[in-house]
User: What shape does this take?
Amino acid sequence: MTHIVVIGAGQAGASLVAKLRSEGFDGDITLIGAEKVPPYQRPPLSKAYLLGEMAQERLYLRPADFYAANNITLRLDTRVVAIDPAAKTVTLTGEDVIGYDELALTTGAHPRTLPRAVGGMLNNVFCVRDLADADAMAPAFVAGKRVLIIGGGYIGLEAAAVASKRGLKVTLIEMADRILQRVAAPETSDYFRDLHRSHGVDIREGVGLEMLLGEDQVTGARLTHGDTLQLDLAVVGIGITPATILAESAGLDVDNGITTDTLGRTSDPHIWAAGDCASCLFHGQRIRLESVGNAIDQAEAVACNMLGKGAPYDPKPWFWSDQYDCKLQIAGLNLGYTAVYVRKGDAPGVQSNWYYKGDTLIAVDAMNDPRNYMIGKRLIEAGRSPTPARITDPATDMKALLKP
Ligand code: FAD
Assistant: This one.
């Protein structure tokens, strides 16, 4: 009987094994995960769960009995330490060896950490990737404590929002000229800077960390502009690196993620990859997406293609972030944009920022504006680009843009 082994029991791994069964695969499936808990959703770790508004059970992607009921062998608290593509085996911690016919890598990513030399090993310095990270950090989020958030990307900003809501005194530093510089236009950065400042967060841009201070526990920080802060804790949100070590040691091609073709196959014909660890093709360009939407869609496409469906994966990027009462929804990918047009809504805080590459609409950031998010998403997916003048004209009936 065919045996499919999946390494990494996160969002992509869970989606992949479920899709194999729903597509009718009746061979053996083994899902191997390094964490102690069954597959769970990560987004709430920097949002509702960190805020204490969501129970752990609600994080789980499937009911506890799903895996057994679907005849999926789930091996938790187990790390794969080597792959032998010639023998078609994987080696687990404890030296168990498992054979496979087809293998999928859904190993996700590692958070970048601060080096020891700048105080990265001090107590009360946290990152947030896993449930264990969030559980370690949450008790330190106590009203009145002083926290430094290092990094103004989505994770850092979400942690800042939770900390501020919990009554901490929050400073956020971003080394680049502006928060969200890597992922969004200045118009979106401006929106979130204003939002955080209105909640009392001290946002400092163009400022890096020189050193965290303290003996065992972090007590302060020295910043690149010479300022010194007194601190009770620090949160590091400086990005992630794809988990590719296993793939590299197995001789697979890696290029900012495990290289996959349009079907999700790696450079080995019997090994596939999906999710944060995989790089894929988008409009002829090699990219790596870090989002739930991609982890699910790519993993499901890989499951189908492992079963011989031959359906190319065509990423349709989307993403969201929650900060205070603002829901940001992003459709498309703004890679290489040449202009951004802002549409303000009727109520305060309602705004959508429309990215164009030449005359082509490629992405939309919608803040508290689900309607324009949906309209933007459908326009992008249909390959339609209204003129920017229509987008910015408050009199435009946006829904009418969808009419042929
Ligand atoms: P993961 O979910 O990271 O799963 C990979 C799993 O593989 C891990 O459990 C890991 O332990 C395991 N693993 C790795 N190596 C091995 C090995 N050798 N042996 C066994 N197991 C191994 N996305 C959004 O779209 N919207 C959001 O608002 C959003 N918020 C986020 C907030 C946080 C705090 C985080 C951390 C992420 C957020 N994301 C968000 C991103 C999203 O969660 C990820 O893109 C998604 O989880 C990727 O799924 P994955 O399966 O590829 O990786």
User: Anything to note?
Assistant: The chain has ten helices and 26 strands. Residues 7-13, 32-35, 42-43, 45-46, 79-80, 106-109, 128-129, 155, 243, 246, 275-277, 290-293, 295, 319-321 surround flavin-adenine dinucleotide (CB under 6 Å).
